[in-house]
Design a protein that fits this description.
The structure is a homodimer. The first copy, chain A, is α+β, with helices and mostly antiparallel strands. Chain A contains six helices and four strands; from the N terminus they run H-H-H-E-H-E-E-E-H-H. In chain A, strands 1-2-3-4 form a four-stranded antiparallel sheet. In chain A, helix 1 crosses helix 6 (182-198) and helix 5 (174-180) crosses helix 6. Chain A is globular and about 50 Å long. The mean pLDDT of chain A is 89. Chain A binds chain B through residues 39-41, 43, 75-79, 81, 83, 86-89, 103-104, 106-108, 110-113, 116, and chain B through 39-41, 43, 75-79, 81, 83, 86-89, 103-104, 106-108, 110-113, 116.
Chain lengths: 199, 199
């Protein structure tokens, strides 16, 4: 994964293991060639995922999977979307940003009634290698809670209640999340291309 | 106007004067019957304008014009939209909220290039009286600056650069703003109905 995010790399590991794909060695960017990542300034998750994967492929010469993901809230016309990670404009460590982004989202939706609190986590995953590129999208529908709950996951997980669940994404185990999450769905859609690569 | 905002009432006065409409007495809600305004929880500017005008009409029995307006930013899929006034979730006086909302918007758009900083001010104006209802929409296209400029106007005026202008809306005189603004356009579209009422 063209990411320094170990949680995303572990997720790819689990998806590949579950699918019985072997013959691939997964490396974090930190293991390979530290370089400045492209800023995520595209208009879509797909644009950003492809840009990151291309940059890492150019820097390393290795087949690269990159992810860009975020939360699309219906009452915000699909925003925060590609701005999910910097919605509050806050700087600081990841946990601090997560708290500020989540608090802002809840404040913005304070007067929005339950029937208009629908949302989706979206992940675009791009695979770039010397024979071509693939980009796929996975979605996970749900709604926005009125208060954060749970300590698992990251980002907006504590306020996202998956459709059919009463718990937030931050209250699910990693295995429960893998079974349905946006990123797992996107990575699963990449499996045919990854199998070919492992060929 | 079903508003405690004297600036909006003055704008309606100017539009009516310029159009030569006489025979109407304009009262602020504060002059008539102080009551709790309906919260602006609709999904559209039109919903909110009609709800406010109906509430004021029911409370006073007088023909009522109400406005709901905000800023639609292209790179935010049309948000802050109906959430413009509480985008940052900040409480406090109007000037404080304006500063917080504007600062948040600029932070969210920090990495968005000029060609994707398009935006529009939008106003829906509703007229409710005993013979019926009319609701109209006015738009004012432009883009979002990188820094606030100017002391005039209110809300997002200091960061809104009207199409064809190099100044922000907060750097225009009231007369310049009236000639092109979203609210003036909406009020102008109400003129036929207001003339009928004055008739």
């Amino acid at each position: 994964m063209a990411s320094r995010n170990r949680k995303k790399l572990a997720e790819l590991h689990r998806v590949l293991d579950a699918a019985g794909v072997s013959g691939l060695t997964l490396l974090s960017l930190d293991d390979v060639a530290p370089f400045d990542e492209a800023p995520e300034t595209g208009a879509t998750f797909e644009d950003n995922a492809v840009a990151k994967a291309r940059q890492a492929f150019r820097a390393t010469g290795l087949a690269t999977v990159a992810d860009d993901s975020g939360l699309e809230v219906d009452a915000l016309n699909g925003m925060p979307g590609v701005l999910s990670a910097r919605w509050s404009g806050t700087h600081g460590d990841a946990a601090e940003k997560d708290r500020a982004n989540t608090a802002l989202l809840l404040a913005q939706l304070r007067d929005v009634p339950d029937e208009r609190r629908g949302a989706a986590f979206v992940s675009a995953c791009a695979l770039v290698h010397d024979a071509g590129e693939v980009v796929v999208r996975g979605e996970w529908r749900g709604g926005i809670a009125h208060e954060p709950r749970g300590d698992g996951g990251f980002g907006y997980d504590p306020v996202f209640v998956p459709a059919g669940s009463t718990r937030t994404a931050a209250e699910l185990s990693p295995a429960e999340k893998d079974a349905v999450s946006h990123r797992a769905r996107a990575l699963t859609a990449l499996l045919p291309a990854l199998r070919e690569l492992a060929g």
